[in-house]
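Predict structure. Chain length: 107.
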Amino acid sequence: MCLALLMLAASPVSAPADDSADYRLVNPRAIELFESDGKLMAWALARFDEDHDGHLSIMEADAAAREFKTLADGDRNGQVTPAEYRAARDFIVARWPVTRQAQATRR
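Prediction complete.
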């Protein structure tokens, strides 16, 4: 399910009017990837929660999904296999252990 959400990179969708006019969403459903996995959500919040509100906006989730796909696509063919997904998730969990204390310090 998570891999399917990551791969659901539909054609770009315009950003809401209050955001940068140049930004195009790659995956409007990216938040679902992080909502389904607490460790990926902790990583995404630690790295992409720009307004520090403890929640991922659609724009923040999209940026996090782009970064995750870049990390996961090991052979750079534009596709993320289940093995690449697991390896990227394991890499994130090992390299970016996010604790509540670390998140609180960041704010």
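Summary: The chain has a mean pLDDT of 78.
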